[in-house]
Amino acid sequence: MALASSNRVKISIAPETVPGTADANFYDNSTVARLTGESLNGNLSYINSEEIRSDRQLTDLVQVSLEASGDLNIELSYGSYDDLIESLMGSTFSTPDASYSATATVDANNTLNSSAAFSALPAKGQWVKISGRTNTANNGYFQVSKTVDPTSSIITFEGTPLTIDATSESTTIAESAMLRMGTTDQSFTIVKEFSDTSPVTYFTFVGMRVSSMSLSFSVGAILTGSISFMGQTYTTSTTTPDGTLGNETAASTTSVMNSVGSISNIWFDGTDAFAAGTFFSNVTLDVDAALRMQNDAIGFLG
What we know:
By secondary structure, the chain is mostly beta strands. The protein has helices at 26-29, 82-89; strands at residues 9-15, 31-32, 37-38, 41-48, 61-75, 100-107, 111-114, 127-131, 140-143, 154-156, 165-175, 188-194, 201-218, 224-231, 233-237, 267-268, 271-272, 282-288. Strands 1, 2, 3, 4, 5, 12, 13, 14, 15 and 18 form a 10-stranded antiparallel β-sheet that branches.
């Protein structure tokens, strides 16, 4: 029996236009995934025949069901998993407005007030970076109110993060990209390639949707996590999938994140936890898309 090295496995992922149908040019439209491990597999279910035989043997072991599922284990890095996070959330990241400045004061009720109209406006609940204030307590990352719409001259913020400052001075706002929960389905074809087997073996999973994600933030550790998939079916072959092998988009090269340099603060309901003297050694973030596996239909396996 040939043994495959874990360092020679490659996971390539491409979005599907038709759920459950692999792209006709898979390798030209796929991206190589960054991972620390994986458990993608096809799970077959069998039932024993209940025929009674005089020789006391089983007549048959019948394959009756198949499902595709599994996890990618990861170290979090910027931009490497955006398409998978979008699938999990059923939405797409917004395109933030370019940074804009206005002469403004910081008034009561945690509002930024401009004597002239802001050239753009953030959305409710969006995180922004404020800079340019002489009072540095009002520079940093803040969340726009989740309930009060910004107006052309007033932006209200969530919680009580700002310090009243009647000085009218140029204030710059930089918006973040934003992702909200939605209902848009996005499935993927995933090919798991064992490069050191002879011949090379390909496991192709289709109709794969992101069902959940878990991230772990711990002191003295890299930000690790897992992305879980639930899908339709899979096949095993020694034939190269469609498209041109080698044309995949290379895996990103952004730095792996950690719990020290990659996290600047933790907020609770608009309150700066660090400023309040609250600190953490471990935090986990779990998001579940609440997908459910649907049983096979008559005439279909998977």
